[in-house]
Design goal:
- The protein is an alpha/beta fold.
- The protein contains 7 helices and 11 strands.
- The longest helix has 31 residues, at 257-287.
- It is globular, with a radius of gyration of 19 Å.
- Bound molecules: adenosine-5'-triphosphate.
- Adenosine-5'-triphosphate binds next to strand 3 and helix 1.
- Adenosine-5'-triphosphate (ATP) binds at residues 32, 35, 41, 43, 61, 63-69, 233.
- InterPro entries: AAA+_ATPase, ABC_transporter-like_ATP-bd, ABC_transporter-like_CS, ABC_transporter_ATP-bind, P-loop_NTPase.
Amino acid sequence: MRTAAAFATPVTPASAAAPAPHARLEGVTRVYPARSGGDEVHALGPISFDLRQGEFFSVVGPSGCGKSTLLDVLSGLAKPTEGTVTFEGAPVDGKVPDGVGVVFQEDASFPWLSVEDNVAFGLRRAGTDAAETRRRVEFAIGFMGLRDFRRAYPSQLSGGMRQRVCIARTLVMQPRLILLDEPFGALDQQTRLLMGDELLRLWRETGATVMLITHALDEANLLSDRIGVMSARPGRFIEVVETGWDRERDSSLAERSEFGAVTSRLWSLLRGESLRAMGQGQAAEKRA
Ligand SMILES: Nc1ncnc2c1ncn2[C@@H]1O[C@H](COP(=O)(O)OP(=O)(O)OP(=O)(O)O)[C@@H](O)[C@H]1O
């Protein structure tokens, strides 16, 4: 187990001798054009960063610092203004590559489809044959504990169960990189903890690389191998904190004293940036 003093790791790309990264951002920025008489918004970067094969990486940062923008650029949902993004060595350019799955905070299930049909949606759209679709849907539904709800509609489910449907929908596509943007943000604390354990199980059993965006420092701490702490906008990593937790961890980790040391470290890095971000927000309000 590492001590707090050993947490920081370089935020620059790995050296040539290191294993190939699963995904890489090099000199990436994202600037949003000015809206109705305002200024353009420099939301992100420049940011250079490697996601390691099979790691659980979380991103924390002050409100509005560019976390979702980072996820959009990494997933191919948005193009960087400058710089390059690669996934498994190939450029990511304006479209989500095969092998990348994205889960959002808002409930993205289709209300008119049953759980089963929601989960099968992506495979059917991709033209996967019926037997393979059945096999994969069966696996994902079982994995996410949805067997008893397969014929239910999203409106009949709790928020936590609906989010399980969304994760199952991603899982069925067999992603090698899973990107999650505040997936548990709308859930109560207990459900959040249980969903965190589920996410860890999914990560361990699929071997996928996971990048999670969260506001909750304890959640980032518990789930992650590494945590990227972002500055106020334009977001850059001010430090990447390495937790050193075992792969077999679960929410009982939160009872350990080293756990508190990591959360304190995250907050000490974030506090000043959060104050800076609040100042940016107040200045923008005054201008409006
Ligand atoms: N389409 C857009 N046009 C203009 N500005 C945008 C657009 N999308 C985001 N922004 C701005 O870019 C900045 C970064 O936004 P982003 O949503 O990436 O931050 P975030 O860290 O995910 O925010 P939050 O913590 O509130 O979820 C914010 O100032 C936001 O207002």
